[in-house]
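Quick illustration, no need to memorize.
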Amino acid sequence: MGSFSVLSHAARRLEGKVALITGGASGIGSSTAKLFCQHGAKVMVVDIQDELGHSVCKDLDPTQASYIHCDVTNEMDVQNAIDKSIAKHGKLDIMFNNAGIVGYKKPNILEADKTEFENVLRVNLVGAFLGTKHAARVMIPVRRGSIINTASVCSIIGGAGLYVLQACTARAHEERRG
Protein backbone atom coordinates (compact mmCIF):
# COMPACT_ATOMS: atom_id res chain seq x y z
CA MET A 1 0.00 0.00 0.00
CA GLY A 2 1.38 3.43 -0.93
CA SER A 3 1.62 6.15 1.63
CA PHE A 4 -0.15 9.45 1.29
CA SER A 5 1.16 12.55 2.98
CA VAL A 6 -1.17 15.51 3.28
CA LEU A 7 1.74 17.60 4.52
CA SER A 8 3.92 16.98 1.47
CA HIS A 9 1.01 17.77 -0.86
CA ALA A 10 0.17 20.94 1.06
CA ALA A 11 3.82 21.98 1.04
CA ARG A 12 3.81 22.02 -2.79
CA ARG A 13 0.26 23.24 -3.41
CA LEU A 14 1.43 25.89 -5.90
CA GLU A 15 3.51 23.44 -7.96
CA GLY A 16 3.33 24.40 -11.63
CA LYS A 17 1.68 27.78 -10.94
CA VAL A 18 3.05 31.12 -12.13
CA ALA A 19 2.62 34.16 -9.89
CA LEU A 20 3.36 37.83 -10.51
CA ILE A 21 3.78 39.92 -7.35
CA THR A 22 3.84 43.73 -7.55
CA GLY A 23 5.72 45.34 -4.70
CA GLY A 24 7.61 42.05 -4.52
CA ALA A 25 10.99 43.51 -3.55
CA SER A 26 10.18 44.17 0.10
CA GLY A 27 7.75 43.64 2.95
CA ILE A 28 4.66 41.52 2.34
CA GLY A 29 5.61 41.15 -1.33
CA SER A 30 9.03 39.61 -0.73
CA SER A 31 7.65 37.37 2.03
CA THR A 32 4.92 36.20 -0.34
CA ALA A 33 7.47 35.54 -3.10
CA LYS A 34 9.46 33.35 -0.72
CA LEU A 35 6.37 31.49 0.46
CA PHE A 36 5.06 30.96 -3.08
CA CYS A 37 8.45 29.56 -4.16
CA GLN A 38 8.51 27.23 -1.14
CA HIS A 39 5.13 25.94 -2.31
CA GLY A 40 6.43 25.30 -5.83
CA ALA A 41 5.35 28.38 -7.80
CA LYS A 42 7.39 30.23 -10.41
CA VAL A 43 7.44 33.83 -9.19
CA MET A 44 7.89 37.11 -11.05
CA VAL A 45 9.01 39.73 -8.52
CA VAL A 46 7.83 43.08 -9.88
CA ASP A 47 8.90 46.40 -8.35
CA ILE A 48 10.69 49.72 -8.88
CA GLN A 49 13.29 48.84 -6.25
CA ASP A 50 15.72 47.10 -8.61
CA GLU A 51 18.49 46.28 -6.15
CA LEU A 52 16.08 44.80 -3.60
CA GLY A 53 14.15 42.93 -6.29
CA HIS A 54 17.27 41.29 -7.68
CA SER A 55 18.36 40.46 -4.13
CA VAL A 56 15.05 38.71 -3.36
CA CYS A 57 15.37 36.62 -6.53
CA LYS A 58 19.01 35.80 -5.79
CA ASP A 59 18.02 34.51 -2.34
CA LEU A 60 15.40 32.27 -3.93
CA ASP A 61 15.95 29.50 -6.46
CA PRO A 62 16.95 31.31 -9.72
CA THR A 63 14.92 28.77 -11.68
CA GLN A 64 11.83 29.80 -9.72
CA ALA A 65 12.14 33.58 -9.31
CA SER A 66 12.76 36.43 -11.76
CA TYR A 67 12.78 40.19 -11.34
CA ILE A 68 11.01 42.68 -13.61
CA HIS A 69 11.30 46.44 -13.16
CA CYS A 70 7.79 47.89 -13.24
CA ASP A 71 6.19 51.14 -12.12
CA VAL A 72 2.59 50.12 -11.40
CA THR A 73 1.39 53.65 -12.22
CA ASN A 74 2.60 53.20 -15.81
CA GLU A 75 0.22 51.08 -17.88
CA MET A 76 2.89 50.05 -20.40
CA ASP A 77 5.15 48.83 -17.55
CA VAL A 78 2.32 46.71 -16.13
CA GLN A 79 1.38 45.33 -19.54
CA ASN A 80 5.04 44.51 -20.27
CA ALA A 81 5.47 42.76 -16.90
CA ILE A 82 2.48 40.52 -17.62
CA ASP A 83 3.66 39.89 -21.18
CA LYS A 84 7.18 38.98 -19.99
CA SER A 85 5.69 36.53 -17.50
CA ILE A 86 3.67 34.90 -20.27
CA ALA A 87 6.69 34.82 -22.59
CA LYS A 88 8.86 33.18 -19.93
CA HIS A 89 6.40 30.72 -18.39
CA GLY A 90 3.56 30.44 -20.92
CA LYS A 91 0.85 31.46 -18.47
CA LEU A 92 -0.14 33.53 -15.45
CA ASP A 93 -2.06 31.81 -12.66
CA ILE A 94 -1.80 34.33 -9.81
CA MET A 95 -1.69 38.12 -9.94
CA PHE A 96 -0.92 39.63 -6.54
CA ASN A 97 -1.42 43.42 -6.67
CA ASN A 98 0.59 44.24 -3.58
CA ALA A 99 2.51 47.42 -4.47
CA GLY A 100 1.58 50.27 -2.18
CA ILE A 101 2.88 53.35 -0.44
CA VAL A 102 1.85 55.17 2.72
CA GLY A 103 2.44 58.64 1.37
CA TYR A 104 2.22 61.75 3.47
CA LYS A 105 3.91 61.30 6.83
CA LYS A 106 2.00 64.00 8.72
CA PRO A 107 -1.42 62.90 9.96
CA ASN A 108 -2.87 66.44 9.93
CA ILE A 109 -4.89 66.95 6.75
CA LEU A 110 -4.27 70.71 6.97
CA GLU A 111 -0.63 69.98 6.15
CA ALA A 112 -1.50 67.69 3.24
CA ASP A 113 0.13 68.04 -0.15
CA LYS A 114 -2.20 67.38 -3.10
CA THR A 115 0.57 66.04 -5.32
CA GLU A 116 1.64 63.50 -2.72
CA PHE A 117 -1.99 62.48 -2.13
CA GLU A 118 -2.46 61.92 -5.87
CA ASN A 119 0.71 59.82 -5.99
CA VAL A 120 -0.63 57.55 -3.23
CA LEU A 121 -3.85 57.12 -5.22
CA ARG A 122 -1.89 56.34 -8.40
CA VAL A 123 0.23 53.66 -6.73
CA ASN A 124 -2.34 52.11 -4.39
CA LEU A 125 -5.52 52.36 -6.44
CA VAL A 126 -4.61 52.87 -10.10
CA GLY A 127 -1.75 50.37 -9.76
CA ALA A 128 -4.15 47.68 -8.55
CA PHE A 129 -6.58 48.58 -11.34
CA LEU A 130 -3.89 48.26 -14.02
CA GLY A 131 -2.63 44.98 -12.58
CA THR A 132 -6.16 43.59 -12.49
CA LYS A 133 -6.92 44.81 -16.02
CA HIS A 134 -3.85 43.26 -17.61
CA ALA A 135 -3.98 40.03 -15.60
CA ALA A 136 -7.63 39.62 -16.60
CA ARG A 137 -6.60 40.18 -20.23
CA VAL A 138 -4.61 36.92 -20.14
CA MET A 139 -6.69 34.99 -17.58
CA ILE A 140 -10.18 35.43 -19.04
CA PRO A 141 -9.42 33.70 -22.39
CA VAL A 142 -8.09 30.60 -20.58
CA ARG A 143 -10.86 30.76 -17.95
CA ARG A 144 -8.51 30.38 -15.02
CA GLY A 145 -6.42 32.42 -12.61
CA SER A 146 -6.60 34.31 -9.34
CA ILE A 147 -6.24 38.04 -8.81
CA ILE A 148 -5.43 39.17 -5.27
CA ASN A 149 -5.47 42.82 -4.21
CA THR A 150 -3.84 43.92 -0.96
CA ALA A 151 -5.52 46.70 1.01
CA SER A 152 -4.95 48.19 4.42
CA VAL A 153 -7.01 47.70 7.54
CA CYS A 154 -7.07 51.52 7.62
CA SER A 155 -9.97 51.43 5.15
CA ILE A 156 -12.15 49.70 7.73
CA ILE A 157 -10.90 51.08 11.04
CA GLY A 158 -10.86 54.87 11.01
CA GLY A 159 -7.97 56.49 12.82
CA ALA A 160 -5.76 53.39 12.50
CA GLY A 161 -3.50 55.13 10.02
CA LEU A 162 -2.95 58.13 7.84
CA TYR A 163 -5.90 59.80 6.11
CA VAL A 164 -4.40 59.29 2.63
CA LEU A 165 -4.13 55.55 3.14
CA GLN A 166 -7.62 55.40 4.67
CA ALA A 167 -9.20 57.21 1.74
CA CYS A 168 -7.39 55.13 -0.85
CA THR A 169 -8.01 51.72 0.67
CA ALA A 170 -11.63 52.51 1.48
CA ARG A 171 -12.16 53.30 -2.20
CA ALA A 172 -10.41 50.07 -3.21
CA HIS A 173 -12.70 48.06 -0.90
CA GLU A 174 -15.78 49.77 -2.40
CA GLU A 175 -14.67 48.87 -5.93
CA ARG A 176 -14.09 45.23 -5.01
CA ARG A 177 -17.56 44.93 -3.52
CA GLY A 178 -18.89 45.97 -6.89
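The longest helix spans residues 114-139.
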